[in-house]
Each structure stands twice: as C-alpha cells, then as structure tokens.
Amino acid sequence: MAQKILASKAGQSKTLRLKKKTVVKSGKPPMPGERKAMRKRIVLSNTNALAVPGLQDLKKDIVGNGGVEFLGKVVGLQGQTVDSLRAAEAFKPHQSWGLFRRPGILVREETIALGEKLMAVEKEGTLKLVLDGDRVTGKSLMLVSAMAMAFVRGWIVLNIPEGKSTE
Q1: CA–CA gap between residue 76 and residue 102 (Å, rounded)
Q2: Is 28 among the domain residues?
C-alpha cells in the first residue's frame, strides 16, 4: 500500500501556477486613423543631436554655381525650403531625418550633375530623367534634393508622393 502512495505521488508533476495579470487599460483607445498617423509621422529635427559646425544653407547661388566646392559636404535646408518640401510630401518616414538637428543634404557628384541639369532647364525648358538603382542607394533623397534645389530657385514643384494606381 505504501508503494501505491509513493507511485501516485511520483507520477504527479508539480507545476507552478501563477495567476495571469490582468491588463489594465489606461487612457482612451486611439482615435480612427491615429495609429496610421503615428506610423507615417515624419520627424525633421532633433534638439538633442549635435550641431554640425560650419553648416551652410542651400541657397540660390550654391545651386547656380554647380556646387563643386561643396562636393562631399553637407548643406543645410532653410526653414522655408523645409516647409515647402513638407507641404509637397517630399519626405519619407524611413529616411531618418530625426537623427539630425535639422535637415541637410550631402552634396555628391550625382547631386552636382543633377543641379547642372536643372540649371540647363532654365535655359532650354524641359528635362526628362529617370532615377534607377538598388534599394537604399539614395533615389528618394536625390528627389528631395532636386525638389529643394527647385524650391530655392523659386520654381513651382508638383510632386506625386506615391505613384501607385488607386484602382
């Protein structure tokens, strides 16, 4: 009889049973569209970021010169240009603008070539250009810099932020 009691106790497994904590809902649930708005939110400045010393603004004369002396340097965007770009929905949520104190553009060889082509448009009239490349190569930032150059020159810019068919 003693063996049966020991066997039955040995067959039982001891488990730790904890009561699940009840989830306390504090506050109101998000309003319709609020989650998507947070996902699509674009932060263009960070007051905690270090300031870039000697950061020059993107101005009309920099765009007109060809910008060869600015090759490899970062050029900052002025407040009015940033407002125009924001209104044109030029910025994308994945571009990490929040890492910097204010938006800026790195002047690359491609940026200089694009600026020269944009300057030639003022004389000739039309430019058709296709930007192509792999993922994360800077196509969207090249478009932002082209729009910034156009806004600085006083052009009217029409932007189609998502070129997808809605059908």
Answers
A1: 7
A2: no
- Is residue 19 included in any domain, yes or no? no
pLDDT per position as a tens digit, 4-13: 555 555 556 6
CA 87-118-52 angle, to 5 degrees, is 60
Q: Please report, as a single letter, which amino acid is at residue 14.
A: K
The boundaries of the domain holding residue 130 are 34-152
pLDDT greater than 90 at residue 15: no
Structural domains counted in the chain: 1
What's at 157, amino acid-wise? V
Give the residue from 42, 146, 46, 148 showing the smallest Cα distance to 102.
Answer: 46
User: Does a structural domain hold residue 8?
Assistant: no
Predicted confidence (pLDDT) at residue 103 exceeds the cutoff of 80:
yes
Spatial distance between the Cα atoms of 47 and 99, rounded to a whole number of angstroms? 10
39: confidence class by pLDDT, cuts 50, 70, 90: confident
| DSSP state letters, 38-76 | HHS------TTSPPPTTPEE--HHHHHH--GGGTT-EEE
16 φ/ψ angles, rounded to the nearest 5 degrees: -90, 120
Please give the model's pTM, rounded to 2 decimal places. Answer: 0.74
Residue 2: inside a domain: no
* Closest to 128 measured CA to CA, from 113, 118, 138: 118
